[in-house]
C-alpha cells in the first residue's frame, strides 16, 4: 500500500481528493498497488465530508510520517508552499504541484533537491490545467530542438475575451462569471494582469530551452486595457484578440519571453480557442508545429493532471523522471528584443483631419485600415517592420493617443 497526502483543499485539492477517493479502483489499477490518502492539510473545517477524518492542520503530521511517499501541493502561492515542498523533498517524499508561482520562482532549486534526494518533483498541472503538455514536450519531442512555444495559457482571460467578443459582455461581468466557475486565481489580478500566464511562460521556456527563466525577465502585459472597441476593431480587420504567451530561441543564444494581448489572424488555430480552453503550440526542428489543446483551468481538469503526476510518482518510487533545467542568469532573456512583424495600431484624436494627414504621411502603404471620422479613430495593421521603427513614427504624431499590439497569423 502507498500512502499519499494532499496539501490544500481548495478547488484543485478537493478535485484531487475526490478522484483519489471516488475513483480508487481506477487509480490503483494504474499504480498496480493499493493507494491510501492518509492526510489532507487545510486550516479550514470540512466536517461534512465523508473523508473528514483525513484532515489535519499540522504540516508536521505529513512531514514526519515516513509511510507517506507522495505529496500533492495544491495550496498556491510561494509561502508557505516553498518551505513545505522543500522539506518534503528533503525527507525523501516525491512532490507534485499545480503551483505555477512556486515552479516559476523556485523550480530550478526544487528540481536540484529532488535529484539529490532521488525523488520526483512533477508539475504537469502548473501549465495548461488538464492538458498534457510538459511531459509530451520533454519526452515525446526529445528528438527535436525546440525553437518556439506560444499559446493561450490563461483560461480566465480567454473566457473573458471570448465573452466580450461573442456576447458583447463587459469586462467586469465576464470576470465574475469566470470566478464563479472556479477558473480565476484567488486574486484575479494575477489572471487579468498577465502574471499567471507569465509564470507558465517561465516554466515552458525553462523546459524547452533548459535554463530557468524568472517572471521578472518576461515582458508581461494583461488584458485590462482591452476595450469592447478594440475587440470590434480587431474583428473588422479580420483578427481576434487573445492573451498570448510566447518564448523563442534567438540566433544569439538568448531567448525572448513575453505575455501580451495579441491580434490573432482567423487562419491561426489559436483564434478558434474559446472559453476556458488553452492551446499551446510547440515548434520543433523535426516536427514543425505541434498543438496541445484542452481545458486550461477548473477543478476536474486540473485535478486530473495532479493525480496523474501522483500516479507517475507512485509508479516510479525508486526511479527519477527527467523533467529538469539549469539555473538561469540575468542576460539570458533578451528584454530589448525588437520584433520584426506586423502590428495593430489604434489612433485617436480630437482633430480627425490632422490625424488622417499624419497617418497618410507616416503609413502610406497601409491597406488594412478601419476609420471612424466621428469618433476620431483610425485603426490599422502595419506593413512588416521593426517595432522600434513603428514606435518612432507614432511618437512624432501630434495631438493623438495611440495603442500598439502585436499580431500573429
Ligand atoms: N487562473 C488560472 C487560469 C488557473 O485561469 O488559467 C489555471 O492555471
Describe the structure.
This protein is of the alpha/beta class. The protein has three domains: 2-130 and 300-315, Rossmann fold (3-Layer(aba) Sandwich), CATH 3.40.50; 134-295, Dihydrodipicolinate Reductase, domain 2; 340-408, BMC (bacterial microcompartment) domain (Alpha-Beta Plaits, 2-Layer Sandwich). 36% of the residues lie in helices and 25% in strands. It has 14 helices and 18 strands. β11 and β12 (288-295) form a beta hairpin. The protein is elongated and about 75 Å long. The chain starts with a strand and ends with a strand. The structure holds L-homoserine. Residues 129, 154-156, 183-185, 191, 196, 296-297 line the site of L-homoserine.
Give a short overview:
By secondary structure, this protein is of the alpha/beta class.
The level 1 CATH classification of the largest domain is Alpha Beta
N- and C-termini, Cα separation: 51 Å
Q: Which segments are poorly predicted (pLDDT under 50) over 5 or more consecutive residues?
A: none
Helix/strand/pairing class, anyone?
A: alpha/beta
Provide the CATH superfamily of the largest domain: Dihydrodipicolinate Reductase, domain 2
Q: What fraction strand?
A: 15-25%
User: Largest sheet at a glance?
Assistant: 10 strands, mixed
Radius of gyration: 23 Å
Average of pLDDT: 96
Bound molecules: L-homoserine
- Outline type: elongated
Count of individual beta strands: 18
> How many domains comprise the coordinates?
3
> How many helices in DSSP terms?
14
Per the CATH scheme, the topology name of the largest domain is Dihydrodipicolinate Reductase, domain 2
Q: Which second-level CATH architecture of the largest domain applies? A: 2-Layer Sandwich
Helical content, roughly?
Answer: 25-40%
Amino acid at each position: 500500500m502507498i500512502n499519499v497526502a494532499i496539501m490544500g483543499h481548495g478547488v484543485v485539492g478537493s478535485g484531487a481528493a475526490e478522484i483519489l477517493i471516488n475513483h480508487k479502483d481506477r487509480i490503483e489499477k494504474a499504480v498496480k498497488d493499493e493507494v491510501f490518502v492518509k492526510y489532507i492539510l487545510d486550516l479550514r473545517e470540512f466536517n461534512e465530508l465523508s473523508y473528514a477524518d483525513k484532515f489535519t492542520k499540522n504540516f508536521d503530521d505529513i512531514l514526519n510520517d515516513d509511510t507517506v511517499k507522495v505529496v500533492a501541493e495544491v495550496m498556491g502561492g510561494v509561502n508557505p508552499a516553498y518551505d513545505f515542498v522543500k522539506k518534503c523533498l528533503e525527507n525523501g517524499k516525491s512532490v507534485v504541484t499545480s503551483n505555477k508561482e512556486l515552479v516559476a520562482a523556485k523550480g530550478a532549486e526544487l528540481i536540484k533537491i529532488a535529484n539529490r534526494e532521488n525523488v520526483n518533483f512533477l508539475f504537469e498541472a502548473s501549465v495548461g490545467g488538464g492538458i498534457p503538455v510538459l511531459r509530451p514536450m520533454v519526452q515525446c519531442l526529445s528528438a527535436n530542438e525546440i525553437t518556439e512555444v506560444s499559446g493561450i495559457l490563461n483560461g480566465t482571460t480567454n473566457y473573458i475575451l471570448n465573452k466580450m467578443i461573442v456576447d458583447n459582455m463587459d469586462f467586469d461581468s465576464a470576470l465574475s462569471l469566470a470566478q464563479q466557475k472556479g477558473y480565476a486565481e484567488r486574486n484575479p489580478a494575477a489572471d487579468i494582469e498577465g502574471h499567471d500566464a507569465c509564470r507558465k511562460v517561465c516554466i515552458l521556456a525553462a523546459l524547452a530551452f533548459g535554463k530557468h527563466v524568472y517572471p521578472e525577465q518576461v515582458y508581461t502585459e494583461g488584458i485590462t486595457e482591452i476595450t469592447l472597441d478594440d475587440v470590434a476593431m480587431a474583428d473588422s480587420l479580420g483578427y481576434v484578440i487573445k492573451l498570448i504567451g510566447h518564448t523563442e530561441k534567438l540566433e544569439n543564444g538568448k531567448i525572448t519571453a513575453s505575455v501580451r494581448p495579441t491580434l490573432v489572424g482567423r487562419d491561426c488555430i489559436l483564434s478558434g480557442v474559446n472559453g476556458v480552453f488553452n492551446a499551446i503550440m510547440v515548434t520543433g526542428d523535426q516536427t514543425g508545429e505541434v498543438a496541445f489543446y484542452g481545458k486550461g483551468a477548473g477543478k476536474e481538469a486540473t485535478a486530473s493532471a495532479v493525480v496523474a503526476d501522483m500516479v507517475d510518482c507512485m509508479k516510479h518510487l525508486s526511479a527519477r523522471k527527467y523533467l529538469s533545467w539549469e539555473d538561469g542568469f540575468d542576460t539570458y532573456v533578451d528584454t530589448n528584443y525588437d520584433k520584426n512583424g506586423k502590428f495593430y495600431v489604434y489612433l485617436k484624436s480630437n482633430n480627425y483631419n490632422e490625424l488622417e494627414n499624419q497617418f497618410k504621411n507616416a503609413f502610406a502603404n497601409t491597406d488594412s485600415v478601419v476609420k471612424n471620422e466621428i469618433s476620431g479613430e483610425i485603426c490599422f495593421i502595419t506593413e512588416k517592420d521593426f517595432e522600434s521603427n513603428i514606435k518612432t513614427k507614432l511618437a512624432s504624431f501630434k495631438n493623438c493617443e495611440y495603442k500598439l499590439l502585436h499580431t500573429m497569423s
